[in-house]
């Protein structure tokens, strides 16, 4: 039984990955938005398969950090001169923050970017990592590392939505998830841009309606996500022009 169960798990893990890869490649934006004149940042959305299900690795920012201490986020940060593109930024930051070696990441795609509170253009880079990966958090940047089943971001147990207005006056909704992690015996609050990327990733991979409202036309997810982003960018650009 042991061997056949193991080979079955291996096969199902492969098909779960394979289906996710195919879906994600359809949504790859490449460098379509890289030319926009905003300061750049990238985050890595590290996917792994555990017990036949996709999981997402997240980090908790160190309490010593000036910006957003103690908040949940993906490994990532600002682009540096040595980075050849958004993928390089995400991989470098993941190595610095949690000890993830770049060659241990199977990069699949870049998804539609977001804009953070500092008006950085933040590109989410999706990659597969091994479920055996042991994070080595850099204490200056990361206080904790945990994983969440990806399905939680379409079928959460504890969810609320916060209406919010961006600095440019763009009205939107902010997803706010509370995830009870039994491994750490802790609850994590996942919200803001991190939740936005996690929800979009889950919508792309599962292709099913979430149990809560989203700002996308789910039948035209590619075009509606790009339109939403361009509207957000346009509202920011307009405000910048008005402030000159």
From TrEMBL:
Cofactor(s), names only, from the UniProt record: Mn(2+); Mg(2+)
Subunit and partners: Monomer.
Subcellular location: Peroxisome
Transmembrane segments annotated in the record for this chain: 190-207
Catalysed reactions listed for this entry: acetyl-CoA + H2O = S-acetyl-4'-phosphopantetheine + adenosine 3',5'-bisphosphate + 2 H(+); tetradecanoyl-CoA + H2O = tetradecanoyl-4'-phosphopantetheine + adenosine 3',5'-bisphosphate + 2 H(+); hexanoyl-CoA + H2O = hexanoyl-4'-phosphopantetheine + adenosine 3',5'-bisphosphate + 2 H(+); propanoyl-CoA + H2O = propanoyl-4'-phosphopantetheine + adenosine 3',5'-bisphosphate + 2 H(+)
Keyword presence, Hydrolase: yes
EC number: 3.6.1.77
A Gene Ontology biological process term: coenzyme A catabolic process
Protein name: Peroxisomal coenzyme A diphosphatase NUDT7
Keyword rRNA-binding: no
Pfam families for this protein: NUDIX (PF00293)
Cellular component terms per the entry's GO annotation: peroxisomal matrix
Family to which the UniProt record says this protein belongs: Belongs to the Nudix hydrolase family. PCD1 subfamily.
An annotated Gene Ontology molecular function: coenzyme A diphosphatase activity
UniProt keyword terms in alphabetical order: Hydrolase, Magnesium, Manganese, Membrane, Metal-binding, Peroxisome, RNA-binding, Transmembrane, Transmembrane helix
InterPro entries assigned: CoAse, NUDIX_hydrolase-like_dom_sf, NUDIX_hydrolase_dom, NUDIX_hydrolase_NudL_CS
Species in which this protein is naturally found: Calonectris borealis (Cory's shearwater)
Superkingdom of this protein's organism: Eukaryota
Chain's role: Fatty acyl-coenzyme A (CoA) diphosphatase that hydrolyzes fatty acyl-CoA to yield acyl-4'-phosphopantetheine and adenosine 3',5'-bisphosphate. Cleaves CoA, CoA esters and oxidized CoA with similar efficiencies. Preferentially hydrolyzes medium-chain acyl-CoAs and bile acid-CoAs. Has no activity toward NDP-sugars, CDP-alcohols, (deoxy)nucleoside 5'-triphosphates, nucleoside 5'-di or monophosphates, diadenosine polyphosphates, NAD, NADH, NADP, NADPH or thymidine-5'-monophospho-p-nitrophenyl ester.
Domain Nudix hydrolase: 38-171
